[in-house]
Amino acid sequence: MKGAGLPGLVVIEGPIGVGKTALAKRLAAQFNAGLLLEETAHNPFLEQFYRDRDGAALPAQLFFLFERARQLDVLRQDDLFTRSRVADFLIAKDRLFAQLTLSRAEMDLYDQIQARLDIEAPAPDLVVYLQAPVDTLKARLRQRRGAFDSMIDSAYLERVNDAYARFFHAYSEAPLLIVNAAQIDPINNERDFDALVGELSAPPRGRRFFNPATHAIA
Predict the structure, then answer these.
(1) pLDDT in tens, 130-147
(2) How many CA atoms lie within 13 A of 162 on its CB side?
(3) CA 17, 19, 63, 148: dihedral to nearest 10 degrees?
(4) Residue 145: half-sphere exposure toward Cβ, Cα within 13 Å
(5) Which of 15, 20, 102, 127 could disulfide-link 106, Cβ–Cβ 3.0 to 4.6 Å?
(6) Helix (H, G, I), strand (E, B), or coil: what is residue 102?
(7) Are the beta carbons of 141 and 90 closer than 8 angstroms?
(8) 4, 32 in Cβ contact below 8 A?
(9) Residues 86, 5: contact at Cβ < 8 Å?
(10) pLDDT at 31 > cutoff 80
(11) Dist CA 181 CA 177 (whole Å)
C-alpha cells in the first residue's frame, strides 16, 4: 500500500481525545506520506489555558494561529502537490476554538490579526471527521498520561464536541468522510484499520459515512 491510495492532502479531524493524531501518524507511515501535526505540546500557553481558560485563551489561540501561518509557508516551499500528506488539523477549525474561548473584544483582535496574516490554506482533497460521544472521549483521555489531558473538564469537552458537530454539519469545502470512531479502533485493531483504509482509498466524493459493525471497542 505504500506510496499509493491517498489523495494529495488528507486531514484527520475530531474533538479532543478522539485519536486523530495517532491515526494521522499511522496513515502517513502506511502510505509513505508526509505528516503535518498540530503539535499542541509546543504551545507554551496551553497548560495555563486548561488551568485558567479566560486568562490564557487569547495567547493560546494566537500561538496556534501564528503556527498555522508558519506551517503553510513550509508547505508552499515544499510544494504541497508533489506528495501525499496527512494532517491532524484543519486550519478552518481554528476559528471554531476561538469562538468557544474568546471574549467579543478578543475575537475582534483575533480577526484583525488573522486578516493581516492573510492565511490562504489549501483545500484538502479529503477530510476525515472522527466522531464520538463525550463518554468515549473522556474514557480515551483517561488512558493518556499527558500533563494537559487530565485538566479537561466534561463541560468544556461537551462544548467542543457540540461545536465540531455543528461545524461539520455545515462543512462543504472538501469531500468529507464521517467516521463513527466510538465503534472502531483503527490504531490498535488491524481489521478496523484495514476497513478504514479501504474507505480512504476510494475516490473522494461529497459526504460519506463510515459506520462499521462494532467489533473492536467494548
Answers:
(1) 999 999 998 888 877 665
(2) 8
(3) 40
(4) 0
(5) 102
(6) coil
(7) no
(8) no
(9) no
(10) yes
(11) 12
**CA separation for the pair 205, 199 (Å, rounded):** 11
Tens of pLDDT along 59-116? Answer: 999 999 998 888 877 766 665 555 688 999 988 888 888 999 999 999 999 999 999 9
Q: How many whole angstroms separate alpha carbon 86 and alpha carbon 7? A: 9
Length of the chain: 218
* Residue 158: exposure state from Cβ atoms within 10 A (0-12, 13-18, ≥19): middle
pTM here? 0.88
Question: CA-to-CA distance for 200 and 209, rounded, in angstroms?
Answer: 11
d(CA 27, CA 39): 17
Give, rounded to a whole angstrom, the gap between the first and last alpha carbons of the chain.
Answer: 29
Q: Rounded CA gap, 46 and 11, in Å?
A: 23
CA–CA dist 71, 67 (Å, integer): 6
Contact between 197 and 187 (Cβ < 8 Å) = no
How far apart (Å, rounded) are the C-alpha atoms in residues 174 and 37?
Answer: 19
- Residue-wise over 124-151: b if at least 16 C-beta within 10 A, else e? bbbbbbbbbebebbbebbeeeeeebeee
3-state helix, strand, coil in the chain (%, to 5): 55, 10, 35
Enter the C-alpha cell of residue 48.
495555563
- Looking at residue 115, its amino acid is A
Residue 130 DSSP SS3: strand
